[in-house]
Amino acid sequence: MTKNETLTLQAAEIRFAGDEDEGKVTAASPYGVVDSYRTVFAPGAFRSAAGRRIPMLMGHDPNNVLGSWQVEGADNALQLRGRMNLEVQRSREVRALVQAGDLPGISVGFRTIKDRRGERGVRIIEEAELMEASFVTFPAVPGAAVTDIRSSAPAEEVAAFLRAVRRAAVSFGAR
């Protein structure tokens, strides 16, 4: 397939653009779930971060920036919508790992503002400043994960679709 290909039919035009994957990714970290540190984020713990842009890192390493996240408000989970900087080689590598399911987790870096002790000594974080969110192999919070990552269809699927469209176009007399 060429990078950009246009096939014109009498009543329709179908365009296939090359890899327009802009590195879009979404993730969520649930509230109310006790993590591996016996800590739980209360619903709305990151309320102050809603609408802010924060760094997207690999493994909480500030020297390994992959892009940025936009923080979205949600009652049951911290919702993140991000864009990986695909001009950076490491971002492309991490994207491939995430797309393959080899790097499924998300972990947040934060500074506690207000917390308290709950039942059985569990620390409840009621308010925190969100500093960054990282891709990780083993998230501390069960269920903290990538929820969607844009990926291009495999080349063989695109090629098969193009062949089918061309056959249909020929049968309708288009070129």
Structure write-up:
The protein is an alpha+beta fold. It has 2 helices and 10 strands, in the order E-E-E-E-E-E-E-H-E-E-E-H. It has helices at 89-99, 155-171, and strands spanning 5-8, 13-16, 24-30, 39-41, 53-58, 61-72, 77-84, 105-117, 123-136, 145-149. The strands form 2 sheets. Strands 3, 4, 5, 6, 7, 8, 9 and 10 form an 8-stranded mixed β-sheet that branches. It has a two-stranded antiparallel ribbon with strand order 1-2. A hairpin with a 5-residue loop joins strand 8 (105-117) and strand 9. It starts with a strand and ends with a helix.
Structure, briefly:
With 175 residues, the chain is an alpha+beta fold.
What share of residues are in beta strands?
A: 35-45%
The total count of strands amounts to: 10
Task: Give the CA-CA distance, first to last residue.
Answer: 17 Å
Mean pLDDT: 84
Regions with pLDDT < 50 over 5+ consecutive residues?
7-19
H/E series, N to C?
EEEEEEEHEEEH
Which structural traits does this protein have?
175 residues; alpha+beta; eight-stranded mixed β-sheet; two-stranded antiparallel sheet; 2 helices; 10 strands
Topology diagram in text:
Elements: E1 5-8, E2 13-16, E3 24-30, E4 39-41, E5 53-58, E6 61-72, E7 77-84, H1 89-99, E8 105-117, E9 123-136, E10 145-149, H2 155-171
Parallel strand pairs: 4-9, 5-9
Antiparallel strand pairs: 1-2, 3-7, 3-10, 5-6, 6-7, 8-9
